[in-house]
Design brief:
Helix content of chain A: 40-55%
Structural class of chain A: alpha/beta
CATH topology of the largest domain in chain A: TIM Barrel
Radius of gyration of chain A: 23 Å
Oligomer: homohexamer
CATH class of the largest domain in chain A: Alpha Beta
């Protein structure tokens, strides 16, 4: 459930981009009363995502379009599977088609790529795959939803919801300890304090200062297991930087709690979904 | 030059997503009067894109930040090249960093991918590579700019600016000829009429009806050169569907005028750009 | 079908202008449960336009108002003809009345003026009357719709959809030929290239450079037929500047393809439409 | 002084309409660094209006454009008089030109038409010409400003600022007296109560109930002077409906206080203002 | 009836503040198909206000939520009284709960505080209690509605609807008389002219210049009755500044027409309303 | 530093509310070129808050107004202390005055009330006072800033940034343990899990399930110290419900970590700040 208050501004903006000047072709060639049914079908194996967005795009072009969501977000679809159908005025469906697909192909693409990372975890692993704040400007809420549809988790949603202390913060704050203390004094008590460490010495300092989460950013692969051993459950351990699908099993086996992957949202290719439209006999 | 009227709504929306609740970490650890300079540097070979957006994001967080754009959009940068710098309050730079990078990494990613397609054209080829309407919802104007930065061309910008007759339009209009005539009657005289054909018979029909552009969508590779020969300059020929980098030389050699590639915008991976921030001595 | 995504921002802005502070009079004098029916009737001969806008304004004040559109956009109505009716809470109808009429009187005014120009064309003429970009700021999509309701055509919808090279462009580009070539290199292949010429020499140059459309702007009347003869079908010919109703037949007879008339949108007087409201017995 | 908070949404909306997809022609033909100066000049006698809007449109496309306003709003300009100049990047001026002119031609048109009504008042007359709420949707604040520039006055600005009791209100409220009393009980003490009367009996009733302003709507011309005599200063008298320029002197002489004219805003033709652009030598 | 055009922007903004990042807790713990009914009940004696806002907030999160408004705005509720109920998906109700309550607790708080001032008037008093423009930024229309729900009246709704001449205006205009005349010349004939006076001499001047309303701002209590006597019905008299509940009876008895109280909107404590949620058996 | 992207929509909305129809009084009485300086001064002891908002409101009416912020947010001001000054066109200052004050009186009111709670903590206490999500709709970011200016802390900023499990969640999730586990599985690893407990048994359950924060909501005063003893540092303890200033010392002494107080934002009276405006000699 994404509230209209959050969803409609995104949809309206996208529709206006494409339809502010009307749809020359459809208005000219499709009679006003022609009705149709369209089926959004997977053209590749994919993780379904965006059914609610699909429905609202259609209805924001024409409130009388009726959408049926056959597969829930998060379901794996095979090529040919029908995800959603829409029925109503053929004109409206054609006008909404591209915008609706642009949304859901992106969301499904993110979900599908995400699942490959999740599937790469060893069976029974407690390691989480998460997204990052490297999301498409304006579409963060949709992409975070897509990451969850793919079976992974979200990182903090914004700069205001949790603390992440990076090298620049450490430098201006006067060291890891000072930075952690300042942040804890400022942050809501509901937020954890995460700190990025580059060296073993900083790791010690972060532990001593009571960091809740420690981020090993671009840490040398060989250093990760020892770091996990040293932390010994006193903090959560996140790794990021240079993460590839191939490294997931090894990182999970090393015992890290979280692997954050920017590529889930910044580089997911669109999934292939087609909309097959068939005219309906006019209702009398 | 993208007018503020077009650009600021996109930027404000993206900044609000990340900063509505403030920046817990930076507010806690970076003193208000600390100044810094930051350099946005390429971490891979890439085609520069988004300098204007980078500047406006920075200034929309803090109107006193000063941006210097060292490399123009469209320039090829090598790893390590500095694209743009920004100087001012360290807090402001840190708060704007992620949003600014999210924009420009996407734009640069599109430009960089686009250039690989353009570079695949045979020397001296008159064939155009173009984008499609498969753009990120809300960011079409930025992505079209990125495609041009990469050396390619834009397709029509919206459903209201030119005619593209597809199979569904043909079906409801009662054939290719009828569809073209209806569309010509409706469209501005400044818009060309493009029609998608699937078969040789439709191609004949489209030519007979005076289509300005003919789209061979998912045409069998072997059928393209004969189609070009048949059209013989009476219309522009566009191909789309299943276009890969490898097919570009052959398609260009076959004499098509336009190759449209949805992947330029729907599946470009983000380019890697880093922002290196260094504190400045306080001005007295 | 104008999508809500395009229409509602216009309507909401207009309603807020009038109703942000409530409706002092109606709230004071009309009981909450009084119901009414209102008939929007022509008070002059006019071309109907804006039924969809009328309906959405009413519903955006009160989602329970029911609108019946008796006459389609583009129909000619005689004085007294009822265009649309609305039924529901009397308060809501009275609050929406002025805003709804402000929209449709303007749209109908444009459609009605447009029809006088279209009717001035000789029978069987293939010449088009078109609008221009001289539209009311913010209402372009509605006014273009009104122009079509009046039987005329639209010109390009924005600076981004087609090329129109004017004197300033020619001057900075280094001549007609250079300007056309630069524009063709930049424009989508779906856009035609139109160039404005002031002299016979420029006309030759434009033809030689392959302009798709030639605009004779403020050309001397005596020069138009010769220009048409010279072009001889190699380009479309548009005339503009100083167009009056009286000149339409002669311009059409001279064989021009397009006559663009800024006055259709920038100087159309509002059409006279009244809303007659009658109370209904309360439903029990 | 129209605050940016009020003005920029109008301007941004209008610019986006025209420039969302860029300016194909200007980007192709005008070099980025070419500078120009443009002069907005009257091509007819007109009342200047919209200088502030002209300036902000220019700056909203390009913050570096410098506008000089030579003639204040409300000034009468002769054909050829330069109203405002703008200097800066030629590209920016060309991109902003049409939108800026669309605003000011409308505002100037309203001001110019208004002045003809004001000038029709007998010398020394205390009668006011006013606008109505029949304004262009979304542009009310600009059009009210234009009416004042033309020397006339504004009517109430919205349904929330003053009371105007019309026939439908009287009918549902149970008579003139009841309607006035209900309205006075509801309205702010800063708002006057105006009531529309159709008959002499209603006029008596309105006076008895202490109406502050009485509107004689579509009153027979012969009835107006007697009504003025009867009212004898106990209320302001407004006339409206079927007002033409020719009737102004007689209505003023009859002693009415206010003549409200919907046509000032709903049917003013655009005034003719041209923008003459001249390139400037590049600054070194 | 507050039109959606006015209400939805306020609601959407508030919902986005809270729900842009989803509702972590509810999504995790409440099954999608669990249904519930919730009752908004008074936890103190209060004046009901905001039923329409409550309903629209709920529906803007989930269009399928059904709200029943049991008590009208303006009703006095005792502790335990149910004001409104909402039924539908438990998730949706929980997501909307806080935002809905934030609106209505404020509105009810204003209405409830207002009633204490109104109740302090002597029986049969004709003195009005009014609000001021000291409203919460962005929520003026809702708070003015709340003031009326509490039985008081509104002052002018904005700087554009009526004239209020204060000391700074008098100083720059060159005296009370000049200020009143300038204002009358500028203001719509539907607006009254109110002038603030600090001294007896200014009061004389204001009366002489024909002010419609005279504001005695921070006047010494002993000076009010004499001022009322002097004015003797020639203008309305408003008092403001340092108004406390205790002073209401005496001010009313002194015969002032209007007592304006900024505290009604700027300092009303929220009223206590609870939302009791009970699960419903799933419909099969 | 609140970015314009976050701040301007709030400010523009508030200014439009008041100024959409202009400022009748100021436009009539204050000459365009009159300049003034205004001083915003405390009229009570207060905690300064909102300097940045004051400045941006002024500039959003007139970009040439110059604001000087004499006292930083968070400073205690005595009656008569000047907080900020603004200099420029008198008209602009007068038009912006009320809106600017409406913002800062509310913000300062919240900061001032907050400080009374913070000051009530015993010296050296480690207990935090925090706000809640009971903020004014649309103004959450400003009010949270004000709470910090008053020396207190913020709670989670939205439903998306941390977990707070309440009775309804527990009921539908199937118990405290299940709810905590579901929430932990869903929430970002950067968010703590807070759970509200009503009974001692629930407290045990929450501790066993590893809750990070335990909320004793409306717990009997006598039960708090024992609960603190039982928790013994295994979780943070927050109390809320029925918190009054008088109870703060005792709650702090009982050792709770957090006392959350809805009244800080939902019931803070506005602080009294006056704007004293003095004309300046015109610059020649």
């Amino acid at each position: 459930m994404i509230p209209d208050a959050v969803l409609l501004p995104l949809i309206d903006r996208a529709l206006a981009e494409d339809l502010e000047g009307g749809d020359l072709t459809t208005e000219a060639t499709v009679p006003e009363h022609t009705r149709a049914v369209a089926r959004a079908a997977a053209r590749q194996e994919l993780v379904v995502c965006g059914g609610e967005v699909f429905e609202r795009v259609m209805q924001r072009v024409d409130g009388k379009l009726v959408v049926d969501r056959l597969l829930d977000d998060g379901t794996v679809a095979k090529p040919g599977d029908v995800l959603w159908t829409v029925e109503g005025a053929a004109r409206s469906i054609l006008m909404a088609e591209r915008t609706a697909l642009n949304f859901v192909q992106r969301m499904t693409g993110v979900a599908t790529l995400t699942k490959t990372y999740v599937d790469a975890l060893p069976t029974g692993s407690k390691t989480r795959i998460t997204d990052t704040r490297k999301t498409t400007p304006g579409l963060r809420s949709l992409e975070r939803h897509a990451v969850r549809s793919g079976g992974a988790h979200n990182h903090r949603d914004s700069l205001g919801s949790a603390v992440m202390i990076k090298d620049n913060h450490i430098a201006t704050a006067g060291g890891v300890k000072m930075a952690i203390e300042s942040a804890r004094a400022r942050a809501p008590h509901t937020s954890r304090i995460e700190v990025e460490v580059d060296t073993d010495a900083q790791l010690d300092e972060a532990l001593a200062a009571g960091a809740d989460v420690i981020l090993l950013d671009n840490f040398p692969p060989a250093g990760i297991a020892p770091a996990v051993a040293k932390v010994a459950g006193r903090a959560l351990i996140e790794v990021s930087g240079g993460i590839t699908l191939e490294r997931i099993p090894e990182l999970a086996s090393a015992g890290v709690d979280v692997i954050s992957v920017g590529a889930l949202t910044h580089s997911a290719p669109a999934a292939d979904i087609g909309l097959d439209i068939a005219p309906l006999p006019e209702t009398s």
